[in-house]
Amino acid sequence: MRFISLANRVSGIFFEQNFGFNFRNNSVTEVVTSKDSKSFYVDVLRCKNVTFINFSIAASSTSPNTDGIHIGRSSGINITNSFIGTCDDCISLGDDNKHITILNVTSGPGHDINVGRLGKYPNEKPVESLTVRNCTLNNTNNGLRIKTWLDIIMVNVSKPVIIDQEYCPCNQCNKQTPSKIKISEVTFKDIKGTSATPNGVTLICTRCELSDIDLIFNGVPTMAACTDVKVHNFGENIY
């Protein structure tokens, strides 16, 4: 395991998660293997320009609430050349995140790459400029949410492409009240592989762009289930 800091030395803060990075700037963490955390494996809070390289996470497929890397209120976070397998979100983003790049990451099992639970609290700040590139998602529950570009491979993923503005776990809310979160300028592009269900694309939102989605279920192209959505569709294999 090797830590490199461009401005100051990286230190791990240990709570229920294996690693906590709070208020860190201009740092690189590389060649780390993390196993059997009680909760989140890595919690990133209010950091700027922090990079994770060759970061490996291995969790039991039955361990609850074990997010791999959770990012909150940070900017310039890069996750590259890494392997993440959990029982919850492999990579998750809360509110007030900007310029997040996920590159060459293999993940699964888990719920996979998610921007989620926004809108529960007042005065939340937006998530902006999330890029996911050249990743492989293997036997995950969800695939990608919000914004993705270029060369994403799905392997037997239950919900490969999903935007859900009716998220309401355990009936904690009133679905008759519309979402207060505005989702805009969303592009899902160049996504291929296999789906574990007939619906490869599930959209409950307002506006997005789909381009070159090539997802197969049992040898035939998947379908798209859309609610209250204006879709600009380019390419093939979207029905």
UniProtKB/TrEMBL annotation:
Any one of the GO BP annotations = cell wall organization
Would I find Cell wall biogenesis/degradation among this entry's keywords?
A: yes
| The entry's keywords | Cell wall, Cell wall biogenesis/degradation, Glycosidase, Hydrolase, Secreted
Q: Which Pfam families match?
A: Glyco_hydro_28
**Cellular localization per UniProt:** Secreted, Cell wall
Q: Name one GO molecular function term.
A: polygalacturonase activity
Top-level taxon: Eukaryota
What does the sequence similarity comment in the record state about its family? Belongs to the glycosyl hydrolase 28 family.
Q: What is this protein called?
A: Polygalacturonase
